[in-house]
UniProtKB/TrEMBL annotation:
This is Unannotated protein. It comes from freshwater metagenome. It holds the Pfam family DUF3000. InterPro entries: DUF3000.
Length: 197
């Protein structure tokens, strides 16, 4: 029988906190296979639009290496990805990349996250139709890729991991063009959802 180590317990505590996070009705959350080459312990949560309209989709991956990674400056690493359709008035916005990055930093702050080594990329992909397809409106999408090291000055980092999952979901709200919901508003959850907001 495998012995449960303190490192296992730290990861399981972090996973338990993430699973407490509830999803708003516009999104379904589920657990997915996680990339096991990046760290000894991994968890992946996916988000997809629950209705007919494809608002946005994303992924939250938690990595844990009990020995720590120099580049992380810690033992945990949060990695997020979001893809969302762009509204017509945002496709050519010259400040879109900066706005997308501000959504991320504001989401981390609003969720009460402490973090180190934040980095990422904001990508815009847009297309326009010509000739016989000239009447079609311009379309495009935004992709946000980012990672950071969850940190804590006073408390156990694992016990605060729900804040980092909430920050990802706040970012998803922004990218989808939805107003973030107040923390004290609860939602009816979809029965198939395993990880919750």
């Amino acid at each position: 029988m495998r012995t449960v180590t303190a490192q296992d317990q730290a990861f399981q505590a972090a996973v338990a906190r993430i699973r407490l996070v509830k999803a708003r009705p516009e999104f379904d959350l589920d657990e997915a296979p996680a990339p096991n080459r990046l760290a000894p312990f991994t968890l992946a949560i996916t988000a997809d639009s629950s209705g007919e309209e494809d608002l946005a989709s994303g992924r939250f991956v938690l990595l844990h290496d009990p020995d720590g990674v120099d580049e992380w400056e810690g033992t945990f690493r949060a990695v997020v990805f979001i893809r969302a359709s762009l509204e017509a008035d945002l496709i050519d916005d010259p400040l879109l990349h900066e706005v997308g990055w501000s959504w991320l930093t504001e989401s981390l702050t609003a969720s009460g996250c402490e973090y180190l080594q934040l980095g990422g990329t904001i990508t815009r992909n847009a297309g326009r139709s010509f000739g016989t397809m000239n009447e079609r409106p311009a379309d495009g999408y935004l992709e946000i890729r980012a990672s950071w090291t969850p940190a804590s000055v006073n408390d156990d980092v694992a016990e605060q991991m729900d804040r980092h999952a909430r920050a990802w979901l706040r970012l998803l709200d922004h990218a989808a063009g939805l107003q973030p919901m107040p923390e004290d508003v609860s939602n009816v959850l979809h029965s198939r959802t395993r990880a919750q907001r």
